[in-house]
Amino acid sequence: MAKKAKKAPAKKAAPKAAKKAAPKAAAKKAAPKAAKKAAAPKAKRKLNPALLQKLTPSETLAAIVGASPLPRSQALKKVWDYIKKNGLQDATNRRKINSDDKLKSLFGKASVGMLEIGGILAKHLK
Hey, is 89 helix, strand or coil? Predict the structure, then answer.
């Protein structure tokens, strides 16, 4: 009788090959990104001239920021400086601004949300 040939156990070479291939693939992906960064430096961003346009504040806003014409961003910054200087930000909800006499005439109400200030200022800048 002929003996049956024993089959050799299957090798688990496939997972090892996959592990070795993964670092090579990552190295290939990283190389083009590095080349892109070195090849194309970012151009400096240009400011929109409409945002730098000087606007005249209304009388109620002029009491806080001054009467001279200034850009919208500077007006908002000066209002925030006034709010912080006088401690008008609500202690429990920092997103609310409690109005004093000057701000109440500007805002028209006792308290305002911080995101509403920009819209209110737009009405007072011409």
Answer: strand
How many domains does the chain divide into? Answer: 1
Angstrom distance (rounded) from CA 112 to CA 98:
7
Residue indicated by tokens 């190295």: 27
CATH code at position 86: 1.10.245.10
Alpha-carbon distances of 76 from 30, 43, 80, 118, rounded to whole Å: 44, 28, 6, 7
103 assigned to some structural domain: yes
Q: Kindly report, residue by residue over 34-87, the tens digit of the pLDDT.
A: 555 566 678 888 888 988 999 999 999 999 999 999 999 999 999 999 999 999
Q: Decide: helix, strand or coil at residue 4.
A: coil
112 and 97 Cβ atoms separated by less than 8 Å: yes
